[in-house]
Amino acid sequence: MRQWSMVGILAICVGTAVALEAQEWEKFGADVPAGAVVPLAQALADPAAHEGQSRTFSGRVVDVCQKKGCWVMLEDAGQGARALLGDHDFYVPKDVRGPAQVHGVLVRATLSPAARAHTAEETSTTAPVPEVEYRILADGVQVLADDPGA
After folding, report:
1. pLDDT at site 127
2. Can you give the residue range of the structural domain that contains 116?
3. Residues 121/77, Cβ–Cβ less than 8 Å
4. What is the pLDDT of residues 42-76, one digit of tens each?
């Protein structure tokens, strides 16, 4: 009997692993290249080491531009960066949320009062838009499809 219990537990574990592997990325813009992925919190802990260089950053999409879907807010461990989707080169659905990877260039941006007001109009939250924020000038974004935590 114990043998069958172990077989059952093993089957559940294998099934869970296969289900996780089967999750597919929803892709927007250019394909995110394979290779190293830098957690956003790690990049923002030492921004000078990552600014101005093309990288793939990971985190969770927690907000999207509610006018056109032209930016996503990527967060990781309490750190955030707004990913601008090219120069309005591509868009994402306004309700997309979940684990994500963003490929692009990290920059530090100082926002004018007008830019802050404009961004505040586009967000789905009531959080104030900071005067200085990190941005990722993105060419590709991928978000895990059907994320149950989204």
Report:
1. 87
2. 24-144
3. no
4. 999 999 999 999 999 999 999 999 999 999 999 99
Domain CATH number, residue 117: 2.40.50
Tell me if residue 21 falls in helix, strand or coil.
Answer: helix
Please calculate the CA angle 78-83-86 and round it to the nearest 5 degrees: 175
Asked if residues 102 and 138 have their Cβ atoms less than 8 Å apart, the reply is yes
User: What does the alpha-carbon distance between residue 32 and residue 34 come to, in Å, rounded to a whole number?
Assistant: 7
- Report the length, in residues, of the chain: 150
pTM: 0.82
Task: Provide the number of structural domains found in the chain.
Answer: 1
98: left (phi over 0), alpha (psi -120 to 50) or beta: left
Q: CA-CA distance, 85 to 91, in Å (whole number)?
A: 7
